[in-house]
Amino acid sequence: MRAPHPDGADAEPWPARAEELLTEHAQRYGALVRAWRAAYDMQQMAESEASTEPPEPVPGLPDAVADQEAARHRLWQDTGKQRAELAAGHTADVHQRAVHAARAYAVATLAGFHAVVSGADPVAVMQGPDDTDAWDEPPLTLPAATGIHAIDDEIKRLHAKAVGRPVKRRGPAPTQKRVRRSYWWEEKKPARPADPGVTLADLAKCLHGHMAGGELVRRLDPGRGAAG
Q1: Domain boundaries in the chain?
Q2: Interaxial angle between packed helices 149-162 and 198-211, expressed in degrees from 0 to 180 and rounded to the nearest 10
Q3: Which residues contact 97 (CB under 8 A, 6 or more apart)?
Q4: What is the per-residue burial (b if ≥16 Cβ within 10 Å, else e) of 188-218?
Q5: Where is this region: Disordered (predicted)?
């Protein structure tokens, strides 16, 4: 059984505070993505309602009643337009917040990963989601290599996507998948765009996964990770 580090939890090879910081980042980004999806879906639904064609007039219906139906439809369109405008503003705002959160998550995991590889204190180089400044975001620097090729290659690939410089593919191009034929009776719904900051988040989740629970520490230095 491992004994606690004599200098406290934050002196452990993988400090508890380091895990807490990364979990806070992951939760913040996830919450913002869910909020963005909700706002986006509301915007699409409201825009559809705002552009709905009025129903065909019913033969024999008194003009006064037909006017009532038309008034209700106009109200439905007007409220749909208002909700669409409100949701559009929310969608844009939350999108920006989510991208910032994804970048902050990536910055924290990159810093922590580099610290673990170099034997430094990860807590000393990581910030929580509430401590980052959107106007002073550090660059997304590729961390030091671990020497474990599977990990290093995965991180290099995800980092390249996150910074917009995809790694060139080696070997033959992948075979394109056949697109399933669609039929007239199948309703086609527009696909929601990719989640904001998804490439940054993919990098952060990968790094976080390797560090979680001190896994990377144990792989790089089994004696240090199991000390106690």
Answers
A1: 9-55+70-166+197-225
A2: 160
A3: 32
A4: eeeeeeebbbbbbbbbbbbbbebbeebebbe
A5: 45-72
Q: The tokens of 121 are what?
A: 């204190």
pTM: 0.81
Spatial separation of the C-alpha atoms in residues 27 and 109, rounded to whole Å: 14
- Contact between 163 and 142 under an 8 Å Cβ cutoff? The reply is no
AA identity, residue 40: Y
pLDDT in tens, 54-107: 888 889 999 999 999 999 999 999 999 999 999 999 999 999 999 999 999 999
CA–CA dist 121, 105 (Å, integer) = 18
